[in-house]
From TrEMBL:
UniProt source species: Kocuria flava
Record bears the keyword Transmembrane: yes
Primary localization class, coarse: membrane
Keyword Transmembrane helix: yes
Organism taxonomic ancestry: Bacteria, Bacillati, Actinomycetota, Actinomycetes, Micrococcales
Subcellular localization: Membrane
Membrane topology qualifier: Single-pass membrane protein
Keywords assigned: Membrane, Protein transport, Translocation, Transmembrane, Transmembrane helix, Transport
One Pfam family, short name: TatA_B_E
Protein name: Translocase
Amino acid sequence: MLGINGGEAIILVLLALFLIGPERLPEYAEKLRQLVRSAKRYATGATEELRETLGPELADVDWRKLDPRQYDPRTIVRQALLEDDDEPPARPAPPPRAPVVRLAPGERAPFDTEAT
């Protein structure tokens, strides 16, 4: 729950009760109730709209197959390593090399003044 443990939640509730006070507590509790109801209504409406948009195809989807929690990275790597390939992957040909030009003894290397 948002990275808050039970003790921290109790401290936050007590702090909220102390700051709000007993006079305004019913008013804020009613606002919280309305917020939760509107969020639930919004989520239900979005679900119904999705069902209407996708139509009968939505019932045919196997949601368990699409659940990412079923995939164990160790199993995926193990299957990939143990998978038999019919033919080895083709290696690309190395690019052709430029011919090496040797300088004569005492000859200076070409120098580009604009390069520096």
